[in-house]
Amino acid sequence: MAGGTVPSGLLSGTATNEHVSCPAGYYRSAPIVWHCSGASGPFRIWLIENANSAGILIPKGVTDFQIIIQAQGDVDLELTDVTTGKYIVKYDGPAINNQKRSGSYQGINGWLPLVTFSGDDDEPPVSENLTISGTTGMPVYLHFHNLWTTPGVISAWYNFSLLTPCPQGILGCTTYDGIQAESTVKAWSRWMQTQSSSADEAWMQSEKDGGHIPYYCWDRIWEHWTSNPGNSSWQYSFRYIDSNNDQMITQEEFTTAYHLYQWTPEDVRQSVSDWSCWVQRHHSAQGAWNTYSNGAKSITSSAWGSTIWDQWFPGPDDLKVDQASSFRFCDSMGDALLSSEEFLKCYWLGGGSATVIAGPASNGHSLGYLTLGIALLTVALLTLLIWYCCRKKSPGKVYRALPTEDVPESMLEDEMRPLVSQPVRFLPPAVHYRAVPVYRAVKKFFQPRQAVVVTPVGSPVQGWTSPPSASVVSPIFFTGSPVASPSYRPTTQSLVVSPTRSVSALSPKQLYSASPQSKLTSPPPLEDLISGYARQMRSNPERASASLAMTPNKGVIRSGLNNSSWENSLRN
């Protein structure tokens, strides 16, 4: 069947709490207290959203256990094996589920004679029940699984008839140390007083049910204390505050616990100092006095509490004592009024300049406006600086990139190789010129009584044709504009060779450093040219033909080459 009979008082919580009370020297540490003679009664548990509660231990030896739950959301009853963690009861579990609702279970360390499950109920109000008939032969965990997206409270009623064998202590109760519990609650009291201005305010903000704080709600209040030393148990503190042990905390008991910690003079001074640092960030000295006094000559205790102390929300590292203690600290005269001198003394307690702003009344925000203006000006200057540094700059003059071409070393003449330590790069000419023949004189055919001016060859460029054998006077032709080599700078003077000095004795640098505008004052004899071409035709016909095609008087030279006498002279 789905659901079960809900006993009277299950939802209202009016049933008695004797079933969960612990004897003197113990405190309740579990929702169910396992008395040896059996017990029955209601309890409630707070569940967070989409989560499974911590398991309630059902010990070995419990006879005829029964539990019924009811909730306003979808909450499932589940039972697991303590040893293996396997599900014994779950609506879609492997053992007892929504289809198979009863049966026995054999575990590693024992077994359950008969387990009966009411089945899954997901229509609010949800009601499910579970029964373990006979005596449990193994310990198991009872879980409440909240499937809703919001937190909620479940109400439960349980019953069992016997616990055998009876343990020495009471399961569900833990040894209680009153001195240690007082120390823990005192630390909580100190923290709570920094979060609320009064006990009444703290009480109004606390979780309650029916005008009091029940056992299951105290967990929600205790968990807000994030600085809990040693993560003390909330059940431990509940036992101390619940002075009459009736499983609920009244407002009187809560107020007593709230004021359990008494502020020391060091605490009060530290608190006022923290307030001083806070108020200095929001008001100038004179502005704070004008704002809080509202034109009066003094500040009363009630005004201090409502307009000054209650408006301060301390940071995580600040200490805030109650407003009465802080007012008594600042009221050095003890007349229940704060004068301007007394107020400003507390204003400067946290440090800072002791210069009080004089002059007309201020609304207390002048310092804030000045700080804001400085901040805005700083941001504007930084923005302008970033724009100036990152703006797109004008490229200025742009020059056309000239293509380059590498001339391999293999194309250079032997006499030029010592001048080249790496491949030479030449820029192509922008303007083309008519090719001009250039001649090289050598010692063998040099005329002693002639002065020769050698036309320099500049640097080789694309399209040039290397000369024939170095022992014969031969023309060198090139196309394009002569461009000076990176290693030598052309001169404007002609190179004149004396009749007693051989041209072949000149260094390559001297041979190629003459002016491009110089010309031969006396060209070599025609027979020397024919003899030179004849030798080149024999050694390299292709190069000789290319060179001859661009030579003036090439017809006469070709006729002379056809004469067989030249071949005979070459053989001799």
What key phrases describe this protein's structure?
572 residues, flat, disordered N terminus, 5-stranded antiparallel β-sheet, 7-stranded antiparallel β-sheet
Structure explained in plain terms:
Helices cover 29% and strands 19% of the residues. It has 572 residues and is α+β, with helices and mostly antiparallel strands. The strands form eight sheets. Strands 2, 5, 8, 9, 10, 12 and 13 form a seven-stranded antiparallel sheet that branches. α13 crosses α15. The N and C termini lie far apart (136 Å).
- List low-confidence stretches: 1-6, 9-16, 354-366, 441-521
Radius of gyration: 55 Å
The number of helical runs is 16
Tell me the strand percentage band.
Answer: 15-25%
Describe the main β-sheet briefly. Answer: 7 strands, antiparallel
Helix content: 25-40%
> Structural class of the helices, strands and pairings?
alpha+beta
**Global morphology:** flat
Q: Kindly state the mean pLDDT as a whole number?
A: 75
- Distance from N terminus to C terminus (CA atoms, Å) equals 136 Å
Q: Tally of extended strands? A: 24
